[in-house]
Design brief:
about 190 residues; mainly alpha; globular
Length: about 190
């Protein structure tokens, strides 16, 4: 385990705006991701970054499941262990099958996804690898299945996930024990 390059700020030492943010997060689940405590080293920008990430998950018309599948594909494309663990945990909470979780990164070749889902996931993956060179067939499929608003939403969900992948990996953030335990449960053979 490599040590993080910034301290994880203790709750007693947090800026008051982060204290409020954490109280809201605890309404969602009983633990808070380490990136919140790391981003607290730069309170204003850190809270803005979390706001963008949180809004990309909750604002707009895309289904919650599709958003988490996009986040899962992006995290896998970036090999962000921290985020891959978190996305599997959220997908499990949503009741997504292990087959869909497993096949999301190769959705275009899987029978577990609709053509619409395949278009979104293929685009998110291509965008993550090289946003300037997304193949035309990927764009064509995206345009065939999604409105302009939805295309922007998919792009922003993928971009926000890429941002948080960079934060977590760049700052060398450790996974939380609660996240690891949930991941082990989510991926255990039934």
């Amino acid at each position: 385990m490599i040590d993080p390059i910034v301290p994880l700020i203790a709750e007693d030492d947090l800026d008051p705006t982060f204290t409020s943010y954490i109280a809201e997060r605890r309404k969602i689940r009983d633990w808070v991701p380490n990136n919140v405590y790391a981003l607290a080293n730069a309170p204003e920008l850190g809270l803005s970054a979390r706001g963008i990430f949180d809004d990309a998950q909750s604002v707009g018309s895309l289904s919650r499941e599709l958003r988490y599948l996009i986040r899962h594909v992006v995290s896998n494309a970036n090999a962000c262990r921290y985020c891959m663990t978190h996305q599997v945990n959220w997908l499990k909470r949503l009741g997504v099958s292990k087959e869909r979780m497993r096949d999301a990164t190769t959705a275009e070749d899987s029978s577990h996804f609709t053509d619409r889902e395949k278009a979104a996931l293929s685009y998110a993956k291509a965008l993550t690898f090289d946003a300037a060179n997304v193949p035309e067939p990927v764009y064509d499929a995206l345009e065939a299945h999604f409105t302009p608003q939805e295309r922007v939403e998919i792009t922003l969900v993928a971009a926000a996930m890429n941002m948080i992948n960079i934060v977590n990996d760049g700052l060398r953030l450790p996974l939380e024990d609660a996240a690891l335990a949930a991941y082990a449960e989510a991926t255990a053979e039934s």
